[in-house]
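Sample 1 of the test manifest.
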Amino acid sequence: MKPQGQRDLVLDSIFVYGAVNASLDMISLLKTIWTVFMTMFRKRVTILYPEEGPHIPPRWRGRIILSRDPDGHERCVACYLCAVACPVACISLQAAEDEDGRRYPEFFRINFSRCIFCGYCEEACPTYAIQLTTDFEMSEYKRQNLVYEKEDLLISGPGKYHDYNFYRVAGLSIKGKGKGEAENEEKPVDRKGLMP
Amino acid sequence: MERLIISFGILSAVLAIGGLLIWLERRLLGLWQDRYGPNRVGPFGLLQVLADMIKVFTKEDWIPPFADKAVFIIAPAVIVVVVLMSFTVVPFAPGIEVVDLNIGLLFFLSMSSLGVYSVALAGWASSSKYSLLGGLRASAQMLSYEVFMGLSLMGVVMIAGSFNLREIVEAQRHVWFVALQPLGFVIFFIACVAETHRLPFDLPEAESELVAGYHSEYSGMKFGMFFVGEYLGITLVSALMAVLFFGGWLGPVLPPLVWFLIKTFAFISFFILLRASLPRPRYDQLMSFGWKVMFPLALLNLIVTGAVVLLRAR
C-alpha cells in the first residue's frame, strides 16, 4: 500500500501524455476543418439532370435500333443470329422473303424489360442492321409498353455505320444484282466450258 | 404591451430560424461536400422546409405499446420548452430582449441542465435497447460537458462583473472577450457542441451506429420536436457565443440587430462545417477527452483569469 500523500507518478504521466496528445491532435482537426471549408470554392461535381446531360461516349450501349442501308432498304436479313446470341432471349423475329429475293423480318420484337444491353446482338449481326445507340431515356409506366415492335425499332438512316450495304458485298443474287456482280466478287466459273 | 410584441417577435423569429436551419444545414452540408443540397423544390430549394413540415405533420404518430406513455410524450416537449425558455434572456439588440434578468447566464446554465432530462427520459421511455443506450450515452455526455461549460463562462463573468447578459455585452465595448479569454471561448465552444449533441459529439443519435439513438422510436411531430429542438439549441448556443465572446450587437456601421444576426449565423455555419468535416470519436475517447483534457483546462483558465482580475483590481 502506498503511503497517503505520495502521488502516483504513473497516473500523472499518463494524464500529461494524454493532455498533450489531445491538444496536439487539435491541430490536425483544424487542418481538416480548413480543408473542408476550402471545398466551398471548388466547382460542385453534381450533374444537374435533366437540365444537363451526362457525357456519353459514342460506343455506349443504349437503346437498340434497326437501321437501313444507304439505299433505303432495311438491312435486317432475318438470319436469327441476334436472337441466338442474346443471353436473355429477348429478341423474337420471323423471316420472310419478298418478291425481289431479299429476306426481311416479318415481325421483329425486342422485350426491353429483359434486355441487358450487352451488345452481343450488335456483334453477331452480319449486316450492321441491329445497333445500340446512346439513348437511355426509355421509361414506361406499363411493362407491356417496353416490348418494342419493328416499327418502334426501325430508323430511317444507316445508324452508326454509314456506308455498309450488305447486299452489295454478299454473293446472293437478288433482283438488280446477279451472281458475280457484287463488289470485289469474281465472275462465276463456267463449269461446262473448256477454257481455263 | 410593447414588451409583449417584442416577446412574440422574438419567439416567431426564433422558430422561423429553427425552420430555416433545416434548409440551411442541408444546403451548406452540400456546399462543403462538393454537391448541391435540395435545389428542386422551390427557388434554391427553400420550399423544402414546407415539404419537411408537411411530411412531419402527416406521419403516423405511433407510440410503441411497450413504451411508458406519459414520459414518452413529455420528453420531446421538454427540450423545446427548455431551449425556448433560454432564449428569453438572450439580448438581441439594446432593448430587444424578452426579459432583462440579472442572473441571465445562470438561468441559461440551469436550463441546459434541464435539457438533459429530455434525452434521458426519451431513451428510458422508449423501452428499446438502442434508445436506452443512446439515452444513457447522451445524458452522461451532456452532464460531463456541462461541468466545464459553466466553469469556462465564469471567466467572462469575472471580467464583466455580472451575470446579466446585456451588461456582459456592454462590457465588451472596448475589446471583445474572445481576445481576453481565448481558452475560455474554445472550451465553451466544445462544450456547446457536446450539449447540443452535434457532430463530432453526436453519439446519442449517431445515425450509422445506434440506429437513431434516443429518438429511434419517435415518429411524426414528436420526432419533429426533437429535430427542431436540436436546431433551436444550435441557434441558442450560437447566439450565446456571439453575446458572450464576440460582442453581441456591437459593431461599427450596421444596425445592432444585423450585427447580432451576422455573428449568430456565422457560428451556426461553423457548427454545420464541423458536421461536414470531423469524424466521430468513440464514446470512451469522448468522455476521457471531456474529463481529462477539458476539465483541467477549464480550471486552469478559471485560476489564471481570477488571478489576473484580482491583480488588476488592486
